[in-house]
Amino acid sequence: MTVTGIFTALIVGLVIGALGRLAVPGKQNIPVWLTMLIGVVAALLGTALARVLGVDTEGFSFLELGVQVALAAAGVFAVVGLTGRGDRTTRSIH
Predict the structure, then answer these.
(1) SS3 sequence, 25-83?
(2) Which regions span the lipid bilayer (predicted)?
(3) Which of 3, 11, 75, 94 fits a 20 to 30 Å CA distance from 45?
(4) Which among 18, 25, 12, 5 has a CA at the least distance from the CA of 72?
(5) Pick the residue with more confidence: 6 or 73?
């Protein structure tokens, strides 16, 4: 993979991850790098799944994008569910 390919994958991952975050309601307290990682994984898995489903993945496809964003949203939802939602401050009981 070339440097351009890696850079493109990171940009696409950021966009797919951001769209996935927008699809999940509420506030997600996860860092940008994790959003990007979820987006890159969702983009790769989404393309593979779209091919299995018979979607033409040459060029731009709204169906492929929909699969990728749905996987990213599921990934964000899973990560937020595992790490917890909301403020990380501790409250002391007196």
Answers:
(1) CCCCCCCHHHHHHHHHHHHHHHHHHHHHCCCCCCCCCHHHHHHHHHHHHHHHHHHHHHH
(2) 6-24, 31-53, 65-84
(3) 3
(4) 18
(5) 73
Give the domain ranges of the chain: 3-83
DSSP 90: -
| Residue 8 tokens, joined | 């493109």
Name the residue among 93, 68, 52, 74 with its Cα closest to residue 13. Answer: 68
Tell me the C-alpha distance between 46 and 65, whole Å.
8
pLDDT above 80 for 31:
yes
pLDDT reported for residue 26: 84
Cα gap 46→20, rounded to integer Å: 12
25 pLDDT exceeds 90? no
Both tokens assigned to 52: 């299995």
Return the residue matching tokens 């989404």: 46
